[in-house]
Amino acid sequence: MSIDTSNVDGQLAPHDLAAFDRQSGSLVERVLFNNRLVVVIACALLTVLLGWQATKLRLNASFEDMIPASHPYIAHYLKNRSELSGLGNAVRIAVETKGNTIYDPAYLATLQKISDDVFLLPGVDRAYMKSLWTPSTRWVGVTEEGMEGGPVIPNDYDGSAASVAVVRMNTERSGEIGQLVSLDGRSSILYVPLLARDPQTGQPLDYTVFAGRLEQLRAKYQGEGVNLYITGFAKVVGDLIDGLKQVLLFFGAAIVIAAATLYWYTRCSRSTLLVVACSVVAVVWQLGILPALGYGLDPYSVLVPFLVFAIGMSHGAQKMNGIMQDIGRGAHKVIAARYTFRRLFLAGLTALLCDAVGFAVLMIIDIKAIQDLAIVASIGVAALIFTNLILLPILLSYVGVSAQAAQRSLRDELRDATVDGLRHPLWRFLDLFTHKRWAALALAVAAVLGAAGYAASLQLKIGDLDPGAPELRADSRYNRDNAFVVRHYAASSDVFAVMVKTPDGACSRLDILQKADALEWELAQLPGVELTNSLALLNRRVITGMNEGSLKWYDLLQNQSSANMITAGAPRGLYNDPCNLLTMYAYLRDHKADTLSRLVATVERFAADNDTQDVQFQLAAGSAGIEAATNIVVKDASHQMLYWVYAAVVLLCLVTFRSWRAVVCAVVPLVLTSILCEALMVALGIGVKVATLPVIALGVGIGIDYALYVMSIMLARMRAGDSLSDAYYQALQFTGKVVLLTGVTLAIGVATWVLSPIKFQADMGLLLAFMFLWNMLGALVLLPALAYFLLPRRQGAAAQSATEQSATAQPPVTSQPMTMRN
Question: Keywords, A to Z (predicted)?
Answer without folding.
Answer: Cell membrane, Membrane, Transmembrane, Transmembrane helix
